[in-house]
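batch_manifest entry 22 of 60
target: BIG2 domain-containing protein
source organism: Paenibacillus antri
requested by: lab member K.T.
priority: normal
notes from requester: please return tokens only, no post-processing; we will run our own comparison against the previous entry in this batch. if the run fails, retry once and flag.
--- input ---
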Amino acid sequence: MRRWKMWKSMLFALSVCLAFTGALSAAAAEGGAEAADRGSRESAPRADFYVSLEGNDAWSGTSNEPNESGTDGPFRTLERAQSAVREAIADGMTADVVVEVRGGTYALDETLSFGPADSGRDGFDVIYRGAPGERAALSAGERITAWSTTDGVVYAANVGTDRPFDTMYENDRRSVKARYPNQGLPREGYQRTIGYQTSSPKRKFGFQAGDIPALADIGQLEAVVWPGGPSGEANWQRDEKKVVSIDEANRIVTLDSDTSYEIGPGSRYYVQNHPALLDAPGEFYLDKASGTLFYRPYRLPIEEQTIVVPRLGRVLGFVGASEANPVEHIVWDGIDVAYGDSKSDSMSRDIDDGAIYMTNARSIVIRNGRISNVGLTGILAAGPVQGLAAIGNDISDIGHVGIHLAGAYNTRRYVNKDNEIVNNRVAGTGRIMGYSSGIGITNSGANYVAYNRVEDTPRFSIGLSATPINQYVGTTLDGVPVTEANKQDFVQTRDNLFEYNDLSNANTDSQDTGLFYSWGYTLNNTFARNYVHDSGIHFSFGYAVYLDDESNGFTIEDNLIVRQQNAGDGNLNASIVTKGIGNRIVNNLIADSPRALSGFSTITQSNNHGPTRDNDFVRNILYNAGQSVYAHNSWHAAAMRQSDYNVFYQPSGKYVLNNTSAAVTLADWKDALNGKYDQHSIATGHVFANAPEQDYRLAPDSAARGMGIRDIDVSRMGLLPAFAFADPLDPLERIYLLTDAAGSGAALELGSKEQAQLDVRGRTVRGFAVAPSRNDVKFRSDDPSVASVNDNGVVKANKSGVARITATVASGGFVRSVALDVFVDDRMSELVVQAPKPTLTLGETTELAAYGRTRFGQVKDLSGMNVSYSSSDDGIVAVDASGKATGVGYGAADVTVSAVDPETGAVLEQAVDIAVVSSKLNGLKATLETKGLHPGQSSNLLVAGTMSDGTPADLTEASWTYESDRPDIVSVDANGVVTAVGAGQATITVTATLRSVTKSTRLYIVVFEEETLPAPWQVSHYGNASGTALYEDGKFRVLSNGYDVWGTADDFVYLHQNASLQEGEAVTVTARIESVVFTNANASSGVMLRSGDGDGAKHVHFRLLPNGNSVLVYRTSENGSSSYAPGPRFQFPQGGYIRLTLRDAVATAAYFDPAANQWVKVRDFNVDLGHEVMAGVGVFAQSDVMTESIVSELEVAVE
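--- output ---
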């Protein structure tokens, strides 16, 4: 990272602070921020050349207006000014050369392109700037006015055949090609393919009858397809292809070339570009042969509308002759770019053009301009580009990516780097390409991306991409063999810093996505101090912060990630997920996303992308962040290096994990691997200053402060006050109360007679930074005798104590208050010591943690204090300088923590007692003696324990407590007898204390009314699973919160009947699995044959997952291990029609292929289930959240 980026960041921060003081106006703040950018446009000296729509290219161009005689004045075109500049700088520069462009629209016939001859030199820049107070714009569009109509609905105009186009605009609103189905909201307006065209899966797809209208002459017809891969689920790329043929008889569409992926069943598509589809306002059809444009305007009369067709894709270019002979040192300031085409006919997967395009370029500045209504990427820096500064731009309604830094794949050449993207608003990208991000970084490094607001993107807000170099080990790139030792030499997506960005409403039309996303081998990137909020996954799955394959060495820190998945029908699997190596996820605040499946997740990588290992999840807050705390998919212990000092809050009181071996609850997780994880993490709802009002500052007495968790200043996240396109009428949405004195968030500390200045900052609905008028702000103290505040926000400390200062802003109907507590003469008064394991075995360790509490109730960490540890008996418990205590001999010892206040010299001490024993209680497991309780039924609890040496625990001397969180649903008495009271869900907590060691376990119980099923069907429960089955309209609805059918014992709900087999007879169970509600990626429903009623019975289970994948799981010995085999892929809502047949100790799995109209064998299993067989459907959720499966055509036959 270049040094200038560090001081520039400080300047930006300074501009924010200054903007919110009462003494400075917004205009002054804007000028302060602009001063960081090679001089302010407002304060710039007289220009060297001028361009005006009133000018003449025959004039000198040295004055900004025509003279009175009309013989001299500004140039008329930018091309003429460019020529004059070239001539002026040819022999060198002694100062900047400035071209000032007067207001108005400058239409282009050809791209305005700058090269080496146009470059600044000798340390100076060539500057093209808009005139102060005016808006100048480059337009690639031509207004169409010569319309005719025969019906007053569809209008026609001749636009010529020389420059066909793929998009157009009416009154700055994008129009679309005539299409079917018609365009709607995101995700609407698509059909779904059917079947799978094995012979040509990337070029052909099937369609349902009626999904494509009968069309004559399809010569210009196109299909826009999200090819979903073999499963149809993937939505990574949207392709636009010409249609070669439509086979109406077989309902097959053939395209002119391959799509990016296979077009599996359920892939989304629509057809476009045919005159018969011209049936909605805003649609057009261009007959390329005749040059006739047919259009249905959004508004009438048409002659009063500004309708523009683009003539160019690339509007503005900066193209060097080579990397050694670049275009450089050109500033484009305050001049807009608009009305560009997409040129989609010629586009490949790697889009290689932009409305503003540069390559072989250095030190180019694009600032303070509007870039809108274009079909390509807004700003594309392709290949060798260094020192680009994209600052203060308003980028909206973009065909592809807003801003893209794009280096090359599969190379060692590190040539796209050291660029900055700062203080831009990017909104409405992917209008044509569909799979686009707001800001893209591809094989580009050492870039600074900050203070941007990115919203309304179909895929990522910010997307990183890199060469997946692990897949190239053993090959040769750039003539160099790629090895494990040198593979990092091929990594360019490295050392990027993303901070203070405001990201929202992403993922609107794709899946397997995130607001911040990284894929490919990356190194040392930082995503910190960003506001990630108000977004959802609308189908399939995704994340908020997504470190996908080979994302290594990230720092994810100090981010506020809130209100995820409050809308959307898909699954937010987690707010943060990592697949890579050595990622540090530290001090993030994840809150108010209750519909997410989890707060944090890891995923084991596949397809030779390398391991997932050595990741850190430390000092984070997960506050109502999802249904589970963690979801470690394909868990292995190396995935996490450390996970600790985190704060959790679940309103339900259920702290559970998904997919983590041997850890279902947070308590289990803390016990796993001998207490490796989250030993100092806590569960508490007291975290924030004002959680109901989404005030996420830490409360002064929150234990999170003592754990070293820092406050996150959201006021600085997003656009700077210097943003030139802020809407002064945009209403206030949020306010912040800040201070210039020592303190943190909601707390301000002062000594007697000290003063502090308060400042109120604000953000509008659209994210603009504002400073409320002093007249609209009122300050009040609830105890002026302790701390008073005047009308200007000056706080004065008067005597020791605590006072709450409240600032209220009332402006234009907006009324909001925010407060902070002022602590006067407060001092640390006591220590709080946490010993995660107060009972140790020989050689076992526990790490002590301590924090301080002040006399007025503040909680503080001990940073800055001299902390020491001592043991009363080093022969029993030894403790080192870091607070790690080790059991070295049997008995008990006091370990004392001492902390010295550096200001007063006061010593605070606190001791904890630690015992050392030979073996201790390690864990509990509770089950019901009678499974599947209905109201009025009771069952004993069966509780087993294990000791730390692996032996069964003798619990006869243990003391017990039992508690139900819903005694109106399930009660439990002092003897552990559980009674179902009514229908619903409850949690029983069982706690045992054995020789000073306390362990708890939870049992989730769902009570249903007794089933009324057609004979001989019945429901059985295994493990701790709850659930039921209902029968209506010939279908079964099976509900289950079971965990799995796997390992040596199963946990699921089984809808079944019993079959007795005679010698030579076979039993077959057949069912159509119509749906499986996603509670976890591994939730399952499928046909099962089972040898008996025990949890570890032998079985075969042919099951479907929520994404349509199938798995065959089998156990061939009683209480033995399980094995699996992959099965065929199915597509919901059609589901899978599947069966299992058992004959002579051989089970055969098969599925019905509707295209071939026959059953297809999957495989055989050698498994002896005996003569008394259970046959039916097994369902589990792999979550305590209930899944649901619809099962039809369920049948058991013996023959």
